[in-house]
Amino acid sequence: MSVPRRTVARSVRALGVVSASAALALSTAGSAAACTIDEFSARAECVGDKGVITVTDVDPAGIPATVSVFLENNGADVKKVGEQVVKGSPEGTTITFEEDWEPNAEYRIHVKAVPHVDEDIKPNLVTPATACEKGEEKPPASKPVPTPSDAAPSPAEEAGSPTPSASGSGSTAPADTTNNVPSPAGESNLAETGANSHTGLIVGIAAALVAVGGGAVFLGMRRRGAKSED
After folding, report:
1. 91 vs 96: CA distance, rounded Å
2. How many angstroms from the chain centroid is the CA of residue 119?
């Protein structure tokens, strides 16, 4: 029994339609599972008093992607904050970049997962208008003010102040200061040469005796001459 050609042609057509539908469905499913830029999001947050930038990947396929963060100024990159690799998940995988961002600063976040995505997250990330709150700095502890009792002892106190000795047999007599009193002018030289002693009186008596003796000799010689003339 032969099959009509028309029936065979219809069967081939039906099989082609089924195959095309299956291929389209697989293509659609593959496109849905592929990594896209819409699966990435970025935020500027505070951890304590430090600023951070977080990027979250919700790619259910878990395709590794390289995330780069750049600080922007007037549409140009000022600096590269950092670069990390993230592997997404249906629950979302978050990576953190430490960046002490300024209020209203702009950052460009680029995602690259070859061959699926190679573009920036749109729009650029703009940080909040309020910076992270800094912790209050504690003032340095003040040094205690020393009281008079804590003050350092004076040199006299360290050496020990002399205590007055008790009056009695153990006391020492004060030194005689009579010789230390200066004598009036004119007497000091006499005292030093001995002129204030009896030397002058003795010299005067000796001179008088010499004069008397000389006069006696002179008188005796005159008497002898008178006698010889007689």
Report:
1. 16
2. 47
Q: Which amino acid is at 194?
A: G
The pair of structure tokens assigned to 42 is 């970025």
Residues 6+ apart with CB under 8 A from 80: 68, 69, 70, 71
Give whole-number Cα distances, 152 to 9, 29, 142, 143, 144, in Å: 119, 89, 20, 16, 15
- β-strand partners of 108: 70
The SS3 call for residue 20 is helix
Count of Cβ atoms closer than 10 Å to residue 193 Cβ: 10
Cβ count near 55 (within 10 Å): 23
Cα angle vertex 195, ends 194, 200, to 5°? 120
- For residues 57 and 40, is the Cβ–Cβ distance under 8 A? yes
End-to-end alpha carbon distance in the chain: 237
- For the chain, residues with pLDDT lower than 50 are 1, 22-32, 165-170, 185-188, 190-193, 195
Residue 8 has a pLDDT of 54
Residue type at 228 in one-letter notation: S
Q: What is the helix (H) or strand (E) element at residue 203, kind and residue range? A: helix 199-229
Among candidate residues 87, 85, 43, 47, the one with its CA nearest the CA of residue 67: 85
Distance from C-alpha of 111 to C-alpha of 118, rounded to nearest angstrom: 6
